[in-house]
Hints:
four-stranded antiparallel beta sheet; disordered C terminus; 36% helix; single chain
Amino acid sequence: MGGSPRVVISTGQALPDLDWSGELDSLTDAWPYLGPTWLGATEKVLPGARPWHTVATRARGELALLPGYILSTPPVVDHEPRTYLGWQAPSGEEVCCGAETDAARSAQVDALGVEPFFPALLLGSPLGYRSEVAYNFWTPTLMSSIVAKMVPAAFEAGIRCIVAPWIPDRRGNEALVDALDSAGGHSAFWGYEDFMSLDAADWEGHLAALPLKKRQRIKGDVRRAEAAGVTIRRVEGAGIRPYAARIAELTCLNREKNGAGEEPGHINGLLTALLDDGADVRAYLGYKDDALVATCVTIRKNHRLFPKWAGFDYAAIGERSGIYFALVLDAPVRDAYAEGLRTVEFGAGAHQAKTLRGCTPRAVTTSMLLSDPDLRPRAAGWLDAFGRSRRAAFGDAVPTPAPGALTLLGSEGCCAGG
């Protein structure tokens, strides 16, 4: 008898045994941050994050992976579920660039303590800032089946909160959001990530097709970088190793300036693992007076290029040198056109500046599901309020709160960044 092959779903799993070449063949369209190479390195540099992955298989070589990490105690704010409810860490750390939260709402969340939230299961790639499934087959019920198996198994394992902080609006992910909501969770706007489709024949055609103001901005970026005395070089593969420590140092300086919580050891460990496994990694190095003052690391996976880490010595180059755009946007896009790639995925951060230079935005959603059903309505209200403040920070029209929401949540705050 015929029929569709059966999908087998297992929870609490280790990573599939795939090297980088296996990822290229078997998880062709998945983000590099969702594959075993990157996630394996994550598990080494984040020992406090216990792997708990959900794996679906069907027939030979058909695979879907929803990464998950159990956090037993409060982690850095980017991985802390309460942050996405508007909670402010006592340390003052922020979840995003310049984020501000409402003190009254933060106090309400803080009053609950950690018990309703930990242990937490963070879905996705903690250091890749992506919450989605890497898959090479599809059925209309794939996402709902994965979530239906994962949620009860997680709660049976003692998980109090399931959080998927960064679900991008791309094919298949609406089904993931819907499945989490149907399981008792709630979802709200987090922000935007940006990408650029390479639709022209070459870089010159790309520039010519842009509106005049965007074209002028790009040319101005290059002129300002040159006027600042910064020259850009590109190194690849093993040639990156001598610069790995400096890349990590500069990246963390930049992330610290913008409120993120990564450490040099995280970046060095991930970068080294990618190089060890033969991933197609490139580094753009900005020099001034023979000193390395700016870096951008990109990863090529098949037809797409992923700029991942950027770092700058602002004391040496100033705040408005133009080097960010010359190094992070222009140089990778030029090379991607030269290699015949289709898309450059820039990710989150500097959203408005990227759109002013020709990028397209993609919305990102946060989903959260608590094991305590009595707490879910309050958490949903907090999550919605945080989403509205995020929309305001991005200059979006903010929907009017539902009746009674302000009484529940307290006064509104506003995140100033993204």
